[in-house]
Write a structure and sequence with these properties.
The complex is a heterodimer of chains A (about 140) and B (about 210). Chain A is of the alpha+beta class. Chain A is built from 3 helices and 6 strands, in the order E-H-E-E-H-E-E-E-H. Chain A has a single domain, classed as 2-Layer Sandwich (Beta-Lactamase), CATH 3.30.450. In chain A, a hairpin with a 3-residue loop joins strand 5 and strand 6. In chain A, helix 1 runs antiparallel to helix 3. The longest helix of chain A is centred in the middle third of the chain and has 21 residues. Chain A is globular and about 40 Å long. Chain B has one domain: 3-Layer(aba) Sandwich (Rossmann fold), CATH 3.40.50. Helices cover about 30% and strands about 25% of the residues of chain B. Chain B has 5 helices and 8 strands. In chain B, strands 1, 2, 3, 4, 5, 6, 7 and 8 form an 8-stranded mixed β-sheet that branches. In chain B, strand 3 and strand 4 form a beta hairpin. The longest helix of chain B is centred in the last third of the chain and has 19 residues. Classes of the chains: A alpha+beta (about 140), B alpha/beta (about 210). The complex binds guanosine-5'-diphosphate and magnesium ion.
């Protein structure tokens, strides 16, 4: 089953990322699917290895979900790594997607989580509507 | 699960190299990484143990150019071959669009090849896929050892063991020197992209 996004969808996602997350102080936002494909990235960082980031994040997310299952949890509510200069937050988006948010200590984790929550809410509709095969034009 | 971005006219698909441990999956990716220009392939990521064994996966992103006006990006993955790592194999297989099965030509690996192919079929089944539904090619690796004294499985025997039911393209290879690596990659890429386009019901005008 493939995901197909049109220019219009990408535009809407871009707007949500920019209004909800980048304007609130996130440095960079990356959307992937759970098989590791990069859907889009927006933000102020120059990331050369963005495809690797997408792939390893999806794998890490899947492995963490498996840990949750093994200890009898459905999912962990918070997936977050704190670095020296930069932090990264992972969250599931709709059923099969992942939103990765990079931010620094100029913004609080609480605010970022709040904004990610509303971004996910707004984005879910776009992903649900495009699930599965659809007409394809080049 | 391929991703198609119509704003960039881009298709992304996932190809997994599967097979018994030590068969040469990582070596295939290393050869591609070392021999391709930086414009075509990105950085290779390897998550391994202290030894050279793949713990989780290797990953290599490729931009293989245009097909029917669409830019094609292929993400290559390998799985750990050791029997105990089945949980990680299943994670890596998630959303797969095409598979290369790398068989080890060493005679002593005969059963390992057969078991690994069966394990692939089972894991795909758990994902709701029949092995015959997924684009697949076989690679009979380490053919260079013909020149040594090490006993190898003849290609006919590998065919009988692994490909009798599947009847998919099979390539002889020596991944360490690169023989057959690109032939394998080209065939699986072609089949994978074709299948992605077919599944999304594309009418293509070139
Ligand atoms: N002679 C020979 N050795 C190979 C070939 N391909 C891989 N090897 C060797 O086999 C070992 C295992 O290879 P590796 O790629 O790590 O196997 P993997 O477990 O399938 O990823 C390494 O020592 C490789 O150098 C080949 O075509 N010929
Ligand atoms: Mg390996």
């Amino acid at each position: 089953m493939s995901l197909i996004l049109t220019k219009n969808d990408i535009g809407k996602l871009e707007e949500i990322i920019s209004d909800q997350l980048l304007d609130s102080g996130a440095e960079h936002v990356v959307l992937t699917d759970l098989s590791g494909n990069l859907i889009m990235e927006r933000g102020s960082l120059q990331m050369e290895d963005i495809f690797s980031l997408a792939a390893v994040s999806a794998a890490n997310f899947a492995a963490t979900a498996e840990i949750a299952r093994l200890i009898g949890e459905d999912d962990f509510a918070l997936l977050y790594h704190k670095g020296g200069r930069r932090n990264v937050h992972f969250s599931r988006l709709a059923k099969d997607y992942l939103i990765i948010t990079l931010f620094n200590d100029n913004v609080s984790l609480g605010l970022i989580r709040l904004k990610i929550g509303s971004a996910i809410h707004a984005m879910s509709a776009i992903f649900e509507q495009h699930k599965g095969a659809g007409p394809w034009r080049s | 699960m391929a991703f198609i971005d119509l704003s960039k006219n881009e298709i992304q698909a996932k190809i997994v190299y599967y097979g018994p441990g030590r068969g040469g999956k990582t070596t295939n990716l290393l050869y591609v990484h070392e021999s391709m220009s930086k414009q075509v392939c990105g950085k290779m990521v390897t998550i391994d143990t202290k030894g050279d064994r793949t713990l989780f996966f290797d990953f290599l992103p490729l931009n293989i150019g245009k097909v029917m006006n669409m830019t094609i990006r292929i993400q290559l993955y390998t799985v750990p071959g050791q029997v105990m790592y089945n949980a990680t194999r299943k994670l890596v297989l998630r959303g797969v669009d095409g598979i290369v099965f790398v068989a080890d030509s060493l005679k002593v690996q005969k059963n390992k090849n057969i078991e690994s192919l069966q394990n692939l079929a089972e894991n795909l089944n758990d994902e709701g896929l029949a092995i015959s539904q997924v684009p697949l090619v076989l690679q009979y690796n380490k053919r260079d050892l013909m020149e040594s004294n090490i006993p190898l499985l003849p290609v006919a025997e590998l065919e009988a063991d692994l490909n009798e039911g599947l009847k998919v393209p099979a390539f002889e290879a020596s991944a360490t020197i690169g023989d057959g690596v690109y032939e394998t990659l080209r065939e699986i890429s072609k089949r994978t992209v074709k299948n992605v386009i077919r599944k999304v019901g594309g009418q293509i005008t070139c």
